[in-house]
Automatic annotation (TrEMBL):
Native source species: Alternaria alternata
Sequence ranges assigned to domain Rhodopsin in this UniProt record: 33-273
Family, per entry: Belongs to the SAT4 family.
Keywords assigned: Membrane, Transmembrane, Transmembrane helix
Bilayer topology: Multi-pass membrane protein
Protein name, entry field: Rhodopsin domain-containing protein
Gene Ontology cellular-component terms listed: membrane
Major localisation: membrane
Length: 364
């Protein structure tokens, strides 16, 4: 039997519809602007693919929220749903809220992978790549575990949407609470990950702090997460259709805001007077050796990440001028033997002196 369309009668329903619609819109706009900014220099990379995937999952998640209102009675008490709209509507809701949990995990997973992939491109060092891969593996494992737990928390599975069936269920509020705590911890670790590398950048402190602030912008989601966490312990899951409205709104906003904040640091080319072009020496994300998803074979060369952060900084800043200077200990004399397997080398060329001059690019 097809679920009945539910009339919009209260503010809670309107709140879900408005926030979900806005969340879909702002994420699509933010990701679209990010892609345009990256295409200015033809630098689409794995972090962009991940953020697009996160945007698609975000759209599906909020479409699920909207359907919970229009077909699941979200915003009404469960008893009222049974009385006015029938058990099919309640069943639709509880199946939908389980789907919401799965979509939430997929959205969060790809948004975090996008950030880690961005770090791997911005900081082309073997240690950063190793840490990014370790954290990426933990994020994927954690989200898969959450999805499995959503299916296994009630036995049999159908008890998730039919509480009258014999069987057992774990505490859904406790499950969602622990999921939020782990999400908060992983956010903190991911934000802290690039800070030691940023501290060592050879740039002015004012600009260094600006880059740190840009890459720490994800803390903006913490207020949403913490407030949501305070609501979960007292949540009555049997009346989730009414009691869980605000917690669900905040849960939907959290990854949407995270996606938008992950896009903001990479939008600067759209607003810069001097845009990077395809001929620019800036090579963000162009190296296959520093990709989060590249094969692990071969040694990753450690490069100076200072230049790669030009995408995040103001080119018009007087402190951003690049000066080519020789290293103080620049002249190295090396004696080498010259030999050939094909022809006789004159005796006076058996030994040669090679003089090397090394140059260093400094950003003053």
């Amino acid at each position: 039997m097809t679920a009945e369309t539910i009339p919009i009668e209260n503010g809670q329903q309107v709140g879900v519809l408005v926030t979900s619609s806005i969340s879909i819109l702002i994420v699509i706009v933010a990701v679209g602007l990010r892609i345009v900014a990256k295409k200015i220099g033809n630098r689409i990379d794995y972090s962009d693919y991940c953020i697009v995937a996160a945007a698609l999952w975000n759209t599906a998640m909020h479409a699920c929220c909207i359907s919970l209102v229009t077909y699941g009675g979200f915003g009404f008490h469960t008893t009222e749903i049974y009385q006015r709209f029938g058990p099919e509507t309640a069943t639709f809701f509880f199946k939908g809220i389980m789907s919401f949990s799965i979509l939430w995990n997929a959205t969060v997973c790809f948004s975090k992978l996008s950030i880690l992939s961005m770090y791997a491109a911005l900081i082309p060092m073997s240690s950063m790549l190793q840490w990014a891969r370790i954290l990426g593996a933990l994020v994927v494992t954690w989200n898969i575990a959450n999805i499995l737990a959503a299916f296994l928390i009630c036995r049999p599975l159908s008890k998730n949407w039919n509480f009258a069936l014999p069987g057992t269920c774990g505490s859904q509020p406790s499950f969602y609470f622990s999921m939020g705590i782990v999400n908060l911890i992983t956010d903190a670790v991911i934000i802290a990950l690039p800070m030691p590398y940023l501290y060592k950048l050879r740039i002015a402190w004012r600009r260094k702090l600006a880059v740190m602030a840009l890459l720490s912008i994800g803390v903006g989601t913490w207020a949403i997460t913490i407030y949501r966490q305070t609501l979960l312990p007292n949540l009555d899951f049997t009346d989730m259709t009414y009691e869980g409205v605000l917690a669900t709104i905040l849960s939907g906003l959290e990854p949407a805001v995270a996606i938008v904040l992950a896009c903001i640091p990479l939008m600067r080319p759209l607003f810069s007077k001097t845009r990077n072009t395809a001929n620019s020496s800036f090579s963000y994300g162009s190296s296959t050796h520093t990709s989060l998803f590249s094969k692990k074979g071969g040694k990753v060369p450690d490069l100076d990440p200072t230049a790669t952060f030009s995408e995040l900084m103001d080119d018009n800043d007087a402190s951003s001028q690049i000066e080519l200077q020789p290293i103080k200990t620049s002249q190295i004399v090396r004696v080498s033997s010259v030999c050939s397997h094909h022809k006789q080398v004159p005796a006076n060329l058996n030994h040669a002196i090679t003089v090397e001059t090394r140059w260093e690019v400094r950003r003053e």
